[in-house]
Write a structure and sequence with these properties.
The complex is a heterodimer of chains A (about 300) and B (about 290).
Chain A lengths: L2 E2 L4 H29 L3 E3 L3 E3 L5 H6 L2 H33 L3 H16 L2 H12 L4 H19 L17 H25 L3 H9 L4 H12 L1 H16 L3 H6 L7 H10 L4 H30 L4
Antiparallel strand pairs in A: 2-3
Chain B lengths: L18 H24 L16 H8 L1 H34 E2 L3 H13 L2 H15 L13 H23 L4 H9 L4 H30 L2 H6 L7 H11 L3 H25 L2 H4 L9
Helix pairs in contact in B: 2-11, 3-6, 3-8, 3-10, 4-6, 6-8, 7-8, 8-11
The chains are: A mainly alpha (about 300), B mainly alpha (about 290).
């Protein structure tokens, strides 16, 4: 029902002009410059020569950087997996909740999402650090258990050594799951909400248990929603900067941290540009995979 | 969770009434909220080391309110978010109208390009903006406030308006074209139809889009980190530099203020929109 642009040229020009201008000047051109830079060489402190070299990309396949790429994908995949495990039952609960409660449950999941990312990350630091709430609780338990044991005539426990919860890979994954869980719950919920409930009832009536119904009926039917949930969680997790920067240790660098370092500290813009484009290509590949999957699962029905 | 112990056993699909799922829900809620709630609670704690509860105090709020640079950063953030929201809603509505209403060559390409700012990783966009404002269009220094925030505002608009466009376009899908035809039959021209028929239908999504743009802008750290200078610090960038040093009750107090602000904004969104504004407007699913 769209109309041809020729029928209303002035309106068309007005609604096309400003967004197109903005997108090209303030988004596509900056990206294009980075792309050109990725084929350049540093000469001097601020000068970059456009030599058309592939050396930046060649450098990116050194084991050090390949390792970081693999690790970033692994961390993002683990985060996504944990988000599915944590989020699926939540989405299920929301789907089958009474209407009024449903709205409140969605709000419950979304409210932290509306809260500033930096504040949420900071809140995790306060929880996980050596003097954080987790270690404080453990310390309290430890001391009391120690007292109890000496009371019972056993050898008292040694001094409490705080668990190293912050500045390591555990903290990074924990933080990423914490930040991205709402991303996963919403698409899962919207996929589950569209399901034909009689199929579930039929499966349960015919004697399949809840677990089997979930795995063999719900999961395949909700696959497009699960796939888009995976995508929405995986992409930001792959490019995460703040979480590994604040919660990670020296060995928890992800791609984004390496890119930032090239631009801000190492001052090697061409290499940083090449790395950012590699990250972008990986993102596009993930999106392409998802849309292929979505098409395939939509195919038989059509 | 409401307890209804003396009722019939839950029906086959009443998953919410089964205890394992309730326990799971409680666990996830604790996971999501406990860090934020303790952060807020400890902003009232009368102890510098921020570990043990020593008594109630408001002194960290006083400190925040006396912290010039933090307040400036906060003002900057709100100003940037306000301008970004205004421009993003206009550009986003135009984009939605363009893609919803018109058939033209290169539409698929434009549609894809408009989704790019949504899917491109923040860090890539951040460095692109850094390079752009360093090499191509250096933002003049020493401009009077708020013009000095221009570079940040521009980059925020670039990633916000495509989100607004998605929200508005989703709304337009429910538009009844007969209304438009009726307007034209009754003699309304193209402009009048847009003004009196299409924009009123868009209106709820414009509010939802505005709230989304405001939050996205207020929330952004990475892209701002790459475009801000020493004189143009936003709240997240300021908090970042504070957090790098240590966990202090002052940061807790500042964070609490922002969390409360977020809750108020969400409540407003609910007031005007129902839950759709919170959930529907915030499902960043470009494919949907």
């Amino acid at each position: 029902m769209e109309q041809s642009w020729r029928k209303a040229k002035s309106v068309f020009a007005l609604v096309l002009g400003p967004p197109l201008f903005w997108l090209v000047l303030f988004f596509l051109i900056p990206l294009a410059i980075v792309w050109v830079y990725s084929f350049g060489t540093n000469i001097g402190l601020t000068q970059i020569a456009f030599t058309g070299t592939f050396s930046n990309y060649v450098r990116a396949i050194e084991p050090l950087y390949v390792g970081i790429f693999i690790k970033s994908v692994g961390v993002a995949a683990l985060t996504t997996g944990l988000c599915i495990v944590l989020g699926f039952p939540v989405a299920l609960a929301i789907t089958f909740a009474p209407d009024k409660l449903k709205a409140w449950l969605i709000l419950l999941i979304m409210l932290p999402f509306w809260t500033n990312l930096l504040i949420r990350t900071y809140a995790l630091i306060a929880v996980l650090r050596d003097e954080g709430y987790v270690n404080m609780t453990l310390n309290w338990l430890w001391t009391h258990a120690g007292g109890l044991m000496s009371f019972a005539g056993l050898k008292p426990l040694g001094d409490f050594v705080p668990l190293q919860l912050l500045h390591n890979n555990f903290a990074v994954v924990f933080g990423l799951v914490y930040v991205h869980l709402p991303f996963m719950v919403l698409p899962l919920y919207s996929a589950l909400d569209r399901l034909d409930r009689s199929l579930l009832e039929a499966s349960l009536d015919l004697g399949a248990g809840h677990a089997r119904t979930m795995l063999q009926i719900v999961a395949p039917l909700a696959l497009p929603g699960i796939a888009s949930g995976i995508l929405i969680t995986f992409i930001p997790a792959l490019g995460a900067y703040l979480t590994p920067d604040l919660l990670g240790g020296p060995d928890s660098q992800m791609i984004a941290n390496i890119i930032e370092r090239q631009f801000k500290r190492a001052n090697d813009w061409p290499f940083g540009a090449a790395l950012s484009f590699l990250l972008m290509y990986m993102t596009f590949i993930a999106i392409a995979l998802q849309s292929v999957l979505a098409k395939r699962s939509a195919g038989p029905k059509a | 969770m409401t307890k209804r112990p003396k009722q019939a056993a839950p029906g086959p699909l009443e998953y919410l009434r089964r205890w394992p799922l309730q326990a799971w829900l409680v666990m996830v809620t604790v996971f999501l909220y406990a860090p934020l709630l303790t952060l807020m609670a400890f902003s009232f704690n009368d102890s510098k080391r921020n570990i043990v509860w020593k008594g109630f105090t408001l002194k960290y709020y006083e400190k925040v309110l006396q912290n010039e640079s933090l307040l400036t950063a906060f003002g900057n953030s709100l100003t940037i978010a306000a301008i970004c929201t205004l421009v993003s809603v206009i550009l986003g509505a135009m984009t939605a109208l363009l893609l919803w209403r018109f058939r033209f060559g290169g539409k698929t390409v434009l549609d894809g390009a408009m989704a790019l700012p949504i899917v491109v990783p923040e860090i890539c966009m951040g460095v692109a903006m850094l390079v752009f404002f360093a090499k191509v269009m250096p933002w003049p220094g020493g401009l009077p406030w708020p013009l000095n925030l221009g570079a940040i505002i521009i980059s925020h608009i670039s990633f916000s308006f495509p989100f607004v466009a998605v929200v508005v376009r989703a709304r337009m899908a429910s538009f009844n074209r007969e209304l438009e035809e009726a307007a034209k039959d009754l003699g309304a021209g193209e402009w009048m139809t847009i003004r009196d028929v299409i924009i009123p239908h868009m209106q709820p999504s414009l509010v939802a889009g505005a709230l989304l743009a405001f939050t996205l802008s207020l929330d952004d750290f990475v892209i701002t980190f790459f475009t801000s200078g020493p004189d143009t610090v936003t709240f997240p960038v300021k908090v970042y530099s504070m957090v790098r040093f240590s966990v202090t009750p002052e940061v807790n107090a500042a964070s609490t203020i922002l969390i409360v602000l977020t809750v108020i904004l969400t409540a407003l969104a609910l007031r005007f929109q129902g839950t759709d504004a919170v959930a529907g407007g915030h499902a960043p699913d470009p494919k949907a």
